[in-house]
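Morning - nicotinamide-adenine-dinucleotide inputs below, output right after.
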Amino acid sequence: MTTTELPVAKRGAALLNDAELNKGTAFTQAERDALGLRGLLPPRVMTQDEQLARILPGVRSRPTPLDQYSYLVSLNDRNVTLFYRLVMDHLEELMPVLYTPTVGQACEEFGRIFRRSRGLFISAEDRGRVREVLAHWPSDDVRMIVVTDGERILGLGDLGANGMGIPIGKLTLYTACAGVPPHQCLPIAIDVGTDNAELRESDAYMGLRQPRLRGAEYDALLTEFVEAVQERFPLACIQFEDFGNHNAFALLETWRDKVCTFNDDIQGTAAVTLAGLLSASRLVGVPLRDMRLLFLGAGEAGIGIGDLVVEALVEDGMSVEEARRHCWFVDSKGLVESSRNDLASHKRRFAHDHAPTRSLLEAVETLKPHALIGVSGTPGTFTTPVLEAMARNHPRPVVMALSNPTSKAECTAREAYTATDGHAVFASGSPFAPVTHKRRTHVPGQGNNAYIFPGVGLGVLVAQSTRVTEEMFAAAARVLADMVTADDLAMGRIYPALSRIREVSRAIAVEVARIAFDRGLARAPRPVDIAAAVSDTMYEPVYRPYVGA
Ligand code: NAD
């Protein structure tokens, strides 16, 4: 892919204005002559490395992360190849700019920083015309769609049409982390209104100025959307992102066995957490099948993790009922147990027989969990007494404070290490710096979904899978856990370094594609070498010469 020549589809200014074809100052003299570019560019021909050396200080000199974000967006609008070269070469530095936490601010300020539309907006006013809207997208070969209705953007709540920043950011990570070709990605915002009255009335808001559509009308629009995607982009995978809790579960249940779709908040989070638990089990010397897990929070993330842990234990030969009994939940009303009659359907399967228990501390003291997993979005809930109780129960308690952003984490890394006298195996959702406790340095793991979803998407794309299954997520988790080295574990780190993310994504994609082929879900012919097919598909941000130039 990287060495073939590009056909000449455009010339002159039109070529420079096409961000996917543009090379800017890297057009050679021969190309400038052949493509009518002479005079339209500064005279010096630059290599891509020279362009990077010019651009990188420009990014770094921007005064705020949001300014850096805007700078990068405009680079992507001008020169996709150079944008991805920059992002891939500096992923650890730029991931927090292109995704959390800066993308949250970018969504909040969407109206102010908006320059040029990207992706598709489908609004409540498009009911009955969604096919027409999808037809306007210029490419037929869309393989990865990330869609949000903006109701629950990160930890920020309802941002309506401003949520578009999330699908854009997530798809950037598909390409940067796994090499999903950018021209096959499509971000979509479904604008059904917003219940955020302040946002709705603000001058800069560009979405529909109406309360959210709910009930049958909402369901009809979403059904029309999914069905229209099947017709227009039959090979596309739809990733639902940042929907409100109720709709997220309902959409997944409705579509997971009918089309190629998944929900990263539920299933991607589950896989990255399962991977962390598998590595932690190596570190503490207790197999997952012997662990008791206690979750604080029984929402999309918590239930998703519980379901995938059950899937993994069942794959290891346990019954579903027994596997579920390894997972316990505390929600805002206390322990999820069988005498409660206020439980939403997704919680009921984890309601075991137990005395009513109001507090997390009491639950930790009676259940003695090996691992405590925070997915509540409520900071400070892993108090010192809770963490001390974890350390009394087990020599190496596992503590995962996954709520994002950092300010929402159930406890900080330092609090976890201090309260457990350095014995905790700690991971978080947002990054924490290493902590030195009693002269030992601990490196917290970051359970970043970006370890999982790009590789899963790439595997699905290579196989042209008709479904995304729980087995694929469980396999992705095992692949990720297997890539944690003895050196990582020695530092207390239960995830591989983020710098290895392309390698991780490639390995996950191979496994996901293999499952699709083995289970008869693939529409692509089975390649002789799946790993080679995955590598060949991965986008590389290199300039290709133009035919004849
Ligand atoms: P959600 O709204 O679906 O669920 C939140 C749950 O927490 C609900 O069950 C709620 O009742 C419960 N809860 C809230 N306050 C509580 C309290 N004080 N005590 C007990 N339970 C409480 O949200 P979600 O999508 O499940 O996300 C939850 C958190 O997980 C968010 O902060 C999100 O940032 C984080 N998350 C992290 C990752 C990651 O690290 N990879 C991925 C996804 C979500």
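Note: DSSP finds 25 helices and 14 strands in the chain.

O.
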